[in-house]
Design brief:
This protein has 2 domains: 1-51, Arc Repressor Mutant, subunit A, CATH 1.10.10; 62-215, Tetracycline Repressor, domain 2. Helices cover 62% and strands 0% of the residues. It has helices at 10-26, 33-40, 54-79, 84-101, 103-109, 121-143, 152-171, 177-180, 185-194, 206-211. Helix 3 (54-79) runs antiparallel to helix 4 and helix 4 runs parallel beside helix 7. The chain starts with 9 loop residues before the first helix and ends in a 12-residue tail after the last helix.
Length: 223
């Protein structure tokens, strides 16, 4: 197989993409740097210029996934500044869209296949940033009376558990088709989050609540 020519900086991204594709088909046990090199069309030694071993590649894949989540969440916080309920719903929806558009990448990013994660500083930094963004959204919602008061990090775990559990069930095909014939995935997510809000948040009331001055405020914190 001819070796492809890559511009500076492209090889690492090509290897990450190849790794995601292999993970999607063969799982973590089917992943190896040799297979990644073959799929990317480079020599079997090329990956070692960026990754010391398979775990380093998994760390890079997971880190890139966290970067995507962070960027999308940051955009939501910026776009809906002062509108906590929109931050809550749209951040959740952005998380789900990532899962739906690239389920293999999403599953690896939010899995436990990365060993000794503390050895990868960029991964740790982005993981903390993602969670901090969610805590910021929760604090804004608490200040607006949308979520119950209390430790914001604990409430953030509750929100994350709902959204992550929701999309994980969907990806595993656990939603009955009769439900999906009646409701969109987005509406079902809103209904799920509505179970922990202090207002009657449903797909039908979301727009009204989001537009209400009562639930509009300046963000408590920024990231």
């Amino acid at each position: 197989m001819p070796v492809k020519k890559y511009h500076h900086g492209d090889l690492k991204n090509a290897l990450i993409k190849a790794g995601i594709e292999i993970l999607a088909k063969e799982g973590v046990h089917g992943l190896s740097l040799r297979k990644v090199a073959l799929k990317a069309g480079v020599s079997h030694t090329a990956p070692y210029s960026h990754f010391a071993d398979k775990q380093s590649l998994i760390a890079a894949i997971s880190t890139e996934g966290l970067r995507i989540i962070c960027e999308h969440t940051e955009e939501v916080i910026r776009r809906y500044r002062g509108k906590p309920v929109r931050q809550l719903i749209e951040a959740g929806w952005a998380y789900i869209q990532f899962a739906l558009s690239d389920s293999a990448h999403f599953k690896v990013t939010l899995s436990s296949v990365l060993e000794r994660e503390k050895d990868y500083s960029e991964y740790v930094e982005l993981s903390y940033k993602c969670f901090s963004q969610l805590v910021c959204i929760v604090e804004n919602c608490q200040a607006a009376g949308l979520l119950r008061p209390g430790p914001s990090d604990v409430e953030a775990i509750n929100v994350w558990s709902i959204v992550h559990g929701f999309v994980s069930l969907y990806l595993e095909g656990q939603f009955y088709h009769t439900i999906l014939e009646r409701f969109t995935v987005r509406d079902l997510m809103i209904s799920s989050l509505g179970h922990i809000t202090l207002v009657d948040l449903t797909p039908r009331t979301y727009a009204r609540i989001a537009a209400s001055p009562r639930y509009a405020l300046q963000p408590v914190g920024t990231i």
